[in-house]
Design a protein that fits this description.
Layout: E1 2-11, E2 14-24, E3 29-33, H1 40-47, E4 55-60, E5 75-78, H2 90-100, H3 105-114, H4 119-122, H5 131-143, E6 149-152, H6 161-176, E7 180-185, H7 188-194, E8 197-202, E9 205-211, H8 212-217, E10 221-224, H9 228-237, E11 243-244, E12 250-252, H10 256-265, E13 272-275, H11 277-290
Parallel strand pairs: 3-7, 3-8, 5-6, 6-7
Antiparallel strand pairs: 1-2, 1-4, 8-9, 10-12, 10-13, 11-12
The structure holds adenosine-5'-triphosphate and magnesium ion.
């Protein structure tokens, strides 16, 4: 289990992580989702003691990461798969990690096998690895101490569709056996496929979190009418916070039945009415993070 309480990181006047609180539970894959610059990596670095929080706490298995004896036996960490030493072979990289965890060659062989690197690949210098192979190696390093918690920053980055499917299987299986997985991504669909719980972050703040299925259900209803102006006004008056979709119509925070009833009383012709479902989650992600996306905006408050 990973517990984050009121975690904040400021760099001067700029707040990179702003008072976030959530728990990643055992037996579940928790997706940490947010656009570029949202604060995911900063938050994860604080979880593993690489960045000191301005305030708040992060504990892993009930303790601050830094106070864990032989951390890699408890928590597997992969923060930047491109940071591995290019001159070492994959096997040497893992051997160092194993040694620090007080383990030997069998752990190295097991990790290599677990992530599907071939013996030949493991013998090559990391500098010659593809991004996908680096991710596998990074995951092998995280798994080497057979930890109960995994903290992975953008682990699917650079994996092809088959690689993503493979990783999804591995992480699901790991969680099914009682492990805790926290993984970050800036791609909703990637997280949607792997995670059971979601934490959405934008501009350092949590904008939504909960069980993925509930968030999907809460995605609202899509409705459209040839008389869009009147429909929009009626939805506004009903207090359902309609947001116009680029492809037409509105997403509203209401049941389809309630929306249909509104159409009836307002004598509005409804030409589209359905649950927003997964698309709703995407709309929500885009809406919630649109104003929060920092790319191109700089650090202006
Ligand atoms: N050491 C630092 N000094 C100043 N600002 C920093 C520092 N580290 C991170 N930031 C800023 O904090 C914000 C959050 O960065 P972070 O790397 O946590 O985002 P992210 O969600 O991981 O983004 P990405 O999806 O691009 O990896 C960014 O605006 C970044 O520039
Ligand atoms: Mg990042």
């Amino acid at each position: 289990m990973i517990q984050i309480e009121n975690l904040t990181k400021r760099y001067g006047a700029f707040t990179a992580v702003d008072d976030i609180t959530f728990t990643a539970r055992a037996g579940r894959v928790t997706g940490f989702l947010g656009p570029n610059g949202a604060g995911k990596s900063t938050a994860m670095r604080m979880m593993v003691g690489l960045t000191t929080p301005t305030s708040g706490t992060a504990t892993v298995l009930g303790r601050p990461y830094r106070s864990l004896p032989t951390p890699s036996r408890h928590v597997g960490v992969m923060l930047d798969a491109t940071a591995q030493h290019p001159g070492r072979t994959g096997r040497e990289t893992l051997f160092l990690a194993a040694t620090m965890a007080g383990l030997g060659r069998p752990a190295v062989d097991a990790a290599i096998e677990r992530v599907g690197l071939t013996t030949k690949e493991a013998g090559r210098r990391v500098g010659n690895y593809s991004l996908g192979m680096r991710q596998r190696l990074g995951l092998a390093g995280a798994l080497i101490g057979d930890p109960r918690v995994l903290i992975l920053d953008e682990p699917a980055n650079g994996l092809d569709p088959a690689g993503i499917r493979w990783m999804r299987g591995l992480l699901r299986e790991y969680a099914a056996q009682g492990g805790t997985v926290l993984l970050s991504s800036h791609l909703l669909h990637e997280v949607e496929q792997i995670a059971q719980d979601l934490v959405m972050i934008g501009r350092g703040r949590i904008v939504a979190h909960g069980a993925k299925d509930e968030l999907l259900r809460a995605g609202g209803t899509i409705v459209d009418s040839p008389d869009r102006a009147r429909l929009g006004a009626a939805l506004e008056v009903a207090g359902w916070g309609p947001s116009a979709r680029p492809e037409g119509g509105f997403v509203v925070a209401a049941d389809a039945q309630d929306v249909a009833r509104l159409g009836l009383t307002e004598q509005l012709l409804i030409t589209e009415l359905r649950s927003a479902g997964g698309g709703g989650l995407e709309d929500m992600f885009l809406q919630l993070t649109a104003d929060d996306a920092r790319e191109g905006v700089g650090n202006a408050a």
